[in-house]
Write a structure and sequence with these properties.
- This protein is α+β, with helices and mostly antiparallel strands and 99 residues long.
- The protein has 2 helices and 4 strands, in the order ββαβαβ.
Length: 99
Amino acid sequence: MNKYRKVIKPKEALVKDDDEIRVTAAGSVSAYISRAAKLFNEMEKPYLTITATGNALTKAVTSAEVIKRRFKGLHQVTKLGSQEIVDEYEPLEEGLDKV
């Protein structure tokens, strides 16, 4: 791998909805609960979406469970998906192929 360099691809600009909570591994569950309270009480949203990937999945599940218990009358709809990530490497020397 010393003869190859990873190609940096530009990230797609994703639009975040007002009713979406994006959970990260570094964030705190209490902050997500506070955001949900703001969405339901102040902004009067009828639903919210919690999204997470990788190590943040456990925090997303914990947040969803706490939100369900704190705000009565909510129902949970769970959707799982997958995202394919392809890394591309370019050669540093002549005569080598792209990987």
